[in-house]
Design brief:
Strand content: 15-25%
Helix content: 25-40%
Number of domains: 2
Distance between the termini: 55 Å
CATH topology of the largest domain: Rossmann fold
Radius of gyration: 25 Å
Number of strands: 17
Low-confidence stretches: 1-5, 285-291
CATH architecture of the largest domain: 3-Layer(aba) Sandwich
Structural class: alpha/beta
Largest sheet: 6 strands, mixed
CATH superfamily of the largest domain: P-loop containing nucleotide triphosphate hydrolases
Strand order of the largest sheet: 3-4-2-1-5-6
Mean pLDDT: 88
Length: about 425
């Protein structure tokens, strides 16, 4: 038992297991404690129809597989050198006004009880308020950092460089520029003419270490024109059939969803590369939830997908197609499918152009579940704004979209661009910048 006493103790909150059902494997050579109340909360959440229910069930199954290796009350030795156990411990006393009816508070009191026993205890939670309460009770509280990235240094997919007028002119004339810096596969360069306002866009060619210019302006993509250089990069990535995964990050009004859908419509109707376009987004309300919605699945989804419908209707308004006159007609013809994320689990999605909008509201575990559904011949496009997150347990550094960007950068089948300029309206630009 001496080996156990010397270990640090990490008390895991429910939301950590919802964020990543296998998160306990991240704590090596230490003791991991699951309070009984966490198991109760997982049992309550397992019937939820959304991703929380799926994650709760995954966590329960994972804990059950570990329980078969020993007694969770005494502690089960894991392959990573840690010991996992379930604890019924509660502090001898609670502060006045500390509501013991709340599971969150009883979970914290489990950590307090272990600390009272002389252990070095850390309370791990995605809930900021729970961490604050834990700290107030003199138990060190930490966030689950395993799947965090630094949003300030997140890969942007492009580099912007000022060059001398003669270099700019040579690139404009030849379309090729030797480049001494090592960039990533599918990374783009925006050249700014020093002393002027002109720009040119090129793509890094790792085979010969040069920057190759993009073709002339691509013109209209389903009626949508790029309004700045980064939007040109976005459309180049979306139209590149070599790429199976594309992420577009940007604030409101930068054109993320509009370009993703416009490119998809071209690939389906004009080039016939994919059989259909599947569009989905997390069902996470902004502000207070209005509760259950009436109707069948399609009717329920139409309320959540209205922003997507707005983009499709705009495209249909500027780019007429004989066989695609309305959104309803496109859905009826099975050219577009609107699906809830919850129903994508377990499906194999071959030969489809898949758009996952508002992906910043997904956890890394959810992102893995969804992207792994893509079948042969499919392309997955994720769009989102890491600074507009409605999931209470995620932030700009811990959401699944940023995690994916950081994990996939440099892969041959992957491309990314961060959009910066709002093109929706002057008001939208000011709102995104000032608010």
């Amino acid at each position: 038992m001496t080996d156990v006493v010397e270990r640090k103790v990490f008390v895991i909150d429910t939301n950590v297991l919802i964020h990543n059902p296998e998160s306990i494997l991240s704590f090596r050579e230490n003791e991991i404690v699951i309070p009984l109340q966490v198991l109760e909360e997982l049992d309550r959440l397992k019937t939820y129809p959304d991703q929380r229910g799926k994650s709760a069930r995954d966590a329960i199954r994972f804990l059950d597989s570990l329980a078969k290796k020993g007694d969770l009350n005494e502690g089960v030795k894991l392959e990573n050198g840690s010991i996992l156990r379930v604890s019924l411990a509660q502090a001898n006393s609670a502060p006045k006004g500390f509501d013991l009816e709340k599971n969150d508070n009883r979970i914290i009191l489990c950590a307090v009880a272990l600390k009272e026993g002389g252990r070095q205890v850390f309370f791990v939670s995605k809930d900021i308020n729970a961490r604050v309460k834990s700290t107030a009770l003199e138990v060190k509280a930490v966030d689950y950092e395993k799947e965090k990235v630094d949003i300030a240094t997140l890969y942007q997919g492009v580099v912007e460089v000022d060059v001398a007028p003669d270099v700019f002119a040579a690139f404009e004339a030849t379309g090729v520029l030797p480049w001494k810096d090592q960039l990533k596969v599918n990374q783009y360069v925006i050249l700014h003419k020093r002393g002027g306002t002109e720009e040119q866009v090129g793509r890094w060619n790792p085979e010969d270490g040069t920057i190759e210019s993009l073709p002339d302006e691509p013109g209209s993509v389903s009626g949508v024109l790029p309004l700045n250089s980064r939007q040109r990069v976005a459309l180049a990535l979306l139209l590149d059939d070599r790429l199976q995964l594309v992420t577009i990050v940007g604030k409101a009004g930068t054109g993320k969803t509009l370009m993703a859908i416009a490119a998809g419509l071209r690939k389906i109707y004009d080039e016939k590369i994919y059989a259909k376009m599947l569009i989905t987004r997390p069902v996470v309300p902004v502000g207070k939830d209005i509760g259950y919605l009436p109707g069948e699945k399609q009717a329920k989804m139409s309320n959540w997908m209205q922003p997507v419908f707005d983009n499709i209707e705009y495209i249909l308004g500027v780019h007429k197609r004989e066989k695609a006159k309305t959104v309803d007609q496109m859905i009826k013809d099975k050219q577009i499918e609107i699906e809830a994320l919850s129903y994508i689990r377990g499906r194999s999605l071959p030969n489809q152009y898949i758009v996952i909008d508002e992906a910043q509201n997904l956890t890394p575990h959810e992102i893995k579940t969804i992207v792994s559904r893509a079948g042969e011949g499919s392309k997955v496009v994720l769009t989102g704004d890491p600074y507009q997150i409605d999931n209470m347990y995620l932030d700009a550094n811990s959401n699944g979209l940023c995690f994916l960007v950081d994990a996939f950068k440099g892969q041959a089948i992957y491309g990314h661009v961060t959009l910066q300029k709002t093109e929706r309206s002057e008001l939208a630009e000011l709102a995104s910048t000032l608010l």
